[in-house]
Amino acid sequence: QMADPFLYDTGERSQYGCLGHEVQIEHIKAYVCRPSFFTDKAVIVIHDIFGWLFPDIRYIVDLIAGHGYITICPDFFKGTDPWKTTDHWADFADWMKHHDPMKVDKEADVVLKYLKEQCGAKKIGIVGFSWGGMAVHHLMLKNPQLAAGVSLYGRIVRDSEERYNLLNPTFFIFGEKDHTISYDQITLLEEKLKQYCKVAYKIKVYPGQVHGFAQLKPEDMKPDDKPYIEEARKDMIDWIKMFI
């Protein structure tokens, strides 16, 4: 049985009034938020196990858009059910088999095409949380169209050495008290990237933070965590701004 990766009660998060709108792109729905001025820079946001409708992820989309990027969160679950707070963790491994974060390439291609052809995007980055963090790590090894990536607390899957040969700059964010990712895994990631990676990368661990910390809305933050959450978000935006 897997431990519940969220130490915050996701069922009791505050609601969020979104600033963007929903679109249909080929076989997937997506949530899009645009800045008030024209830009040819875009960021794809990959949701966690709670899916593209989850208020926290839409808050992040709006936040990134506020920094001057066309920001889009597609439904990478393609209309199937996301994980729900009422589901049992004993079933999680089985659920994951049908929601593989390494099988996101087709959807990413559809969204990249939309951003370029419909939105006029010339430079595109990607940010992902938890399940989405794993997907970002995967895509940064496969898709040269993504100019920069930020992977937030995505479990590190050790399948081969090429797992560390990133195509473009990638920033890995972790919480010190994330019990889904061991410190050994982070150390190994650092060693392997040093060995194999030929592009810019960064790894940062935020003190005292649990899994899922960086996507909390201000009213859901605990006062002790707030400075670290805000720092992680600023670091995320700064990384994007450096390359996109």
CATH superfamily: Alpha/Beta hydrolase fold, catalytic domain
Which structural class fits the helix and strand makeup? alpha/beta
The number of distinct β-strands equals: 8
CATH class: Alpha Beta
Strand order of the largest sheet: 1-2-4-3-5-6-7-8
User: Helix share of residues?
Assistant: 25-40%
For the record, the CATH architecture stands as 3-Layer(aba) Sandwich
Oligomer: single chain
User: What fraction of residues sit in β-strands?
Assistant: 15-25%
What is the CA-based Rg, rounded?
A: 17 Å
How many helical elements? 6
Please sum up the structure shown.
The chain has helices spanning 55-65, 92-97, 105-117, 131-142, 183-196, 226-243, and strands spanning 21-25, 28-33, 41-46, 70-74, 123-129, 146-152, 170-175, 201-206.
Describe the 3D structure.
This protein is α/β, with parallel strands linked by helices. It has a single domain (21-243), classed as Rossmann fold (3-Layer(aba) Sandwich), CATH 3.40.50.1820. The chain has six helices and eight strands; from the N terminus they run E-E-E-H-E-H-H-E-H-E-E-H-E-H. The protein has helices spanning 55-65, 92-97, 105-117, 131-142, 183-196, 226-243; strands at 21-25, 28-33, 41-46, 70-74, 123-129, 146-152, 170-175, 201-206. It has an eight-stranded mixed sheet, with helices on both faces. The protein is globular, with a radius of gyration of 17 Å. The chain starts with 20 loop residues before the first strand and ends with a helix.
Name a few traits of the molecule.
globular; 244 residues; 20% strand; 8 strands; alpha/beta; Rossmann fold; eight-stranded mixed beta sheet; single chain
